[in-house]
């Protein structure tokens, strides 16, 4: 099945699943309330967005300079920086490190980039055990699922679902409270930190001038992953760079507010290198992997480059009416929702993933809620246009639009077409053809009601009306 057919199939199943929709609506509803309350504490939220947009514009448009500045600054403190052109190279770097250092087990904190490169599956194929330590990611790993949402991996589950998962996978009794479930995960994971040889984290930002990575989290597990094992590897996309440390004063609250409705996320950690002489904490080795994996395709596209400004807060997912109905898994991508629909064609190919850009009402809410003001809904339109220009539309669609174009430019032909369509619709309804499998518009009317074509067009009515007015004068 093609990705487009799979998406359509899964979306239909999810949309008619009322339990799934109720969970999703409750989660996004709670989120909306919290975000609105926290945003209201800003003197001028939109001014903050504009400054954030300008900072990201500066970073992305001088990406080569800032990435090299980051490499210089962090290398000076003993960090080893690796450059990975694609997922295969990034996985190979991690595998090589594991083999050279005898790593059999590693702990991981939440990282969408490791989902993007399918790191866990790759490591398991090479007999290395990755253990997710973010509670949501840990639950997803136990269930052999992919994260449902870029910020909230288990948004689709209730406490009862998680209780059952723990019962089946960890043998705990059912009926635990939320606190009880968290304590169970804590107990299991504490031992994993202490026995792992490597910790892998993502990075929410990398700061060029000080050579630091910044990690934002609510559970403290990323701190444990980056400080207890003897080797710490951080992997992130090249677009995560910020020019200056000062920029975090704006980006950390923007991320927290848009991501979870918090004023500031609980733990914000900056790491600038491995343990230094005289320090008691930290890993012996610190590696940073800077991943391209299609991002430079986006960078080369001046029209859509700003999609690299994304700070992965998830706000556009939560605000999207399509996501609110079909949920995260239906997309079949690492990055879901509007931002996923914009960037996935660049990262994985327009031909296979163009359909995501059509899964939008184009209401523009994604653009409105984005803290760095990415013009998401216009980028969806640009993807649609690019797909057509590249010849990815079907012959029937092209034929339809050609006919429509001709009709719209020829008044007589348009009038004839309206009359013929009206007659065809009446016959079709009279003989019960409408909505049947041989009805040519059935795929469209399957989910919608086609209105009856009016007996009189507006132009005809207007002509009659003018005549009537004239006669009355
Ligand atoms: S596009 Fe904007 S709203 Fe969507 S995840 Fe990225 S930063 Fe957040």
Q: Could you give a short account of the major beta sheet?
A: 6 strands, parallel
The count of helical stretches stands at 24
Helix percentage: 40-55%
- The counted number of beta strands is 10
Distance between the termini: 67 Å
**Heterogens:** iron/sulfur cluster
Arithmetic mean of pLDDT: 95
Q: Please mark out the parts with pLDDT under 50 across 5 or more consecutive residues, or reply none.
A: none
* Side-by-side strand order of the widest sheet: 1-10-7-4-2-3
Please indicate the count of domains: 3
Beta-strand content estimate:
5-15%
Class of secondary structure makeup: alpha/beta
Shape designation? elongated
Evaluate the radius of gyration: 27 Å
């Amino acid at each position: 099945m093609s990705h487009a057919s799979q998406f359509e199939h899964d979306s239909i199943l999810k949309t008619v699943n009322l339990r799934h929709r109720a969970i999703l609506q409750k989660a996004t509803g709670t989120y909306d309330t919290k975000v609105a309350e926290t945003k209201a504490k800003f003197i001028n939220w939109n001014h903050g967005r504009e400054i954030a947009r300008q900072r990201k514009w500066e970073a992305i448009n001088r990406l080569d300079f800032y990435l090299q500045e980051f490499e210089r600054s962090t290398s000076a403190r003993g960090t080893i920086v690796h450059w990975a052109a694609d997922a295969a190279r990034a996985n190979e770097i991690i595998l090589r490190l594991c083999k050279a250092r005898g790593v059999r087990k590693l702990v991981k904190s939440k990282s969408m980039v490791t989902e993007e490169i399918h790191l866990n599956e790759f490591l398991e194929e090479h007999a290395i055990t990755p253990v997710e330590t973010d509670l949501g990611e840990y639950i997803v790993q136990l269930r052999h699922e992919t994260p449902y949402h870029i910020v909230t991996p288990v948004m689709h589950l209730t406490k009862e679902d998680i209780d059952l998962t723990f019962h089946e996978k960890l043998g705990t009794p059912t009926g635990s409270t939320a606190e009880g479930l968290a304590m169970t995960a804590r107990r299991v994971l504490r031992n994993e930190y202490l026995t792992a040889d490597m910790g892998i984290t993502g990075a929410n930002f990398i700061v060029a001038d000080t050579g630091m990575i910044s990690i934002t989290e609510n559970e403290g597990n990323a701190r444990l992953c980056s400080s207890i094992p003897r080797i710490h590897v951080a992997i992130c996309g090249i677009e995560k760079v910020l020019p200056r440390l000062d920029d975090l004063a704006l980006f950390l609250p923007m991320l927290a507010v848009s991501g979870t409705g918090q004023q500031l996320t609980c733990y914000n950690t900056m790491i600038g290198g491995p343990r230094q002489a005289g320090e008691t904490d930290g890993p012996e080795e610190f590696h940073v992997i800077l991943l391209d994996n299609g991002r430079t395709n986006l960078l080369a596209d001046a029209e859509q480059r700003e999609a690299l400004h994304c700070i992965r807060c998830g706000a556009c997912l939560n605000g999207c009416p399509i996501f609110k109905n079909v949920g995260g898994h239906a997309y079949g991508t690492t990055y879901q929702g509007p931002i996923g629909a914009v960037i996935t064609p660049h990262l994985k190919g327009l031909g296979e993933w163009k359909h995501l850009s059509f899964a939008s009402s184009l209401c523009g809410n994604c653009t409105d809620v984005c803290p760095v003001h990415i013009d998401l809904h216009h980028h969806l339109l640009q993807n649609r246009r690019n797909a057509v220009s590249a010849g990815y539309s079907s012959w029937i669609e092209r034929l339809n639009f050609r006919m429509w174009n001709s009709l719209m430019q020829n008044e007589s032909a348009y009038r004839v077409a309206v009359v013929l369509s009206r007659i065809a619709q009446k016959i079709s309804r009279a003989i019960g053809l409408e909505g049947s499998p041989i009805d040519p518009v059935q795929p469209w009317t399957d989910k919608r009601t086609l209105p009856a074509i009016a007996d009189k067009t507006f132009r005809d009515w207007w002509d009659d009306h003018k005549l009537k007015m004239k006669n009355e004068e």
